[in-house]
Amino acid sequence: MGVKSLIDIARRLRKNSTDTERYLWRYLRNRQVEGVKFRRQQQLGKYIVDFVNFENKVVIEVDGGQHADNSSDKIRDEWLRAALLTPHPNPLPQGERENNF
Hints:
alpha+beta, four-stranded mixed sheet, 4 strands, globular
């Protein structure tokens, strides 16, 4: 998959965010959290991550049930760690995320 198609996919994902992603973005945008700048649906290598802060090397993935025990996600996480970025673990157990947002 080429860079151009990943950019198009990222744009589409920004326009079609999930409810949880929109909710979280309300708090991450405009440096509202400790003055830290986050970007959303950002291309990193051959992946598109939900939220990233380059300065502190933090990635936040808002994964739903389709990502539970997914081997592709494990490969992505290993790649992100190797690229010196830390995927943030889901803060709530599966099933509770949807109920709290």
